[in-house]
Amino acid sequence: MQKKLLRTSLFGFSKTEVCDYIARVNDEFNSKIDLITAEHTKERNELTAQIAALNEEINKYKQANADIAQALFDAQQYATELKAKADGEYKEAQDELLVLKEAETDKLNTYREKIENVRKEIVSVLSDIDDKLAAETVKTEDLIAEYNSEEGIAV
Fold first, then answer.
1. Which of 2, 133, 148, 149 lies in disulfide reach of 153, CB 3.0 to 4.6 Å?
2. Which residue has the higher pLDDT, 1 or 92?
3. How far apart are CA 20 and CA 26, in angstroms?
4. pTM higher than 0.85 for the full model?
């Protein structure tokens, strides 16, 4: 606003000049208020748009976060299932190997018993052969001694 000197009349200031001045100041004030209101409305609309865009971005991040959390949960569940399955398969394989080991051990024990029985039979047969050989040796020596005594050969 400008500093203005108002003219004076007989009983004070000129009423028309004062009214014109007040009207002019009022118009300037209203135009400045309208301009500020327009600027604030524009700024408010821009900020509202920014807030909406940021809220939309926040919602996208929240959804991405939820998707990641769900994926992690699913992966954890899948890993647990795989571990349980692998543990089950390991247990089954271990049980199968134990059964095979026991079967092979039984076979080896059976073979060991058969070998032991054959060894005992061989020892028995060899013992019988030794006994028969000893008896035959005695008979042979008796026959040789008898022959020698008949022939008069001194031993």
1. 148
2. 92
3. 10
4. no
Which residues on adjacent β-strands are paired with residue 96?
none
Tell which residue, 50, 57, 80, has the closest CA to residue 65. 57
113 is written with which tokens? 């018993």
Tokens of 77: 């569940």
Residue 13's φ and ψ, nearest 5 degrees, are -80, 155
CA distances from 87 to 22, 60, 96 (A): 94, 40, 14
What's the per-residue H, E or C state across the chain? CCCCCCCEECCEECHHHHHHHHHHHHHHHHHHHHHHHHHHHHHHHHHHHHHHHHHHHHHHHHHHHHHHHHHHHHHHHHHHHHHHHHHHHHHHHHHHHHHHHHHHHHHHHHHHHHHHHHHHHHHHHHHHHHHHHHHHHHHHHHHHHHHHHHHCCCC
Torsion (CA) 13, 19, 22, 24 in degrees, nearest 10:
-120
**Which tokens belong to 136?**
């035959």
pLDDT digits (tens, 9 = 90+) for 54-69: 999 999 999 999 999 9
Which pLDDT band holds residue 1 (cuts at 50, 70, 90)?
very low
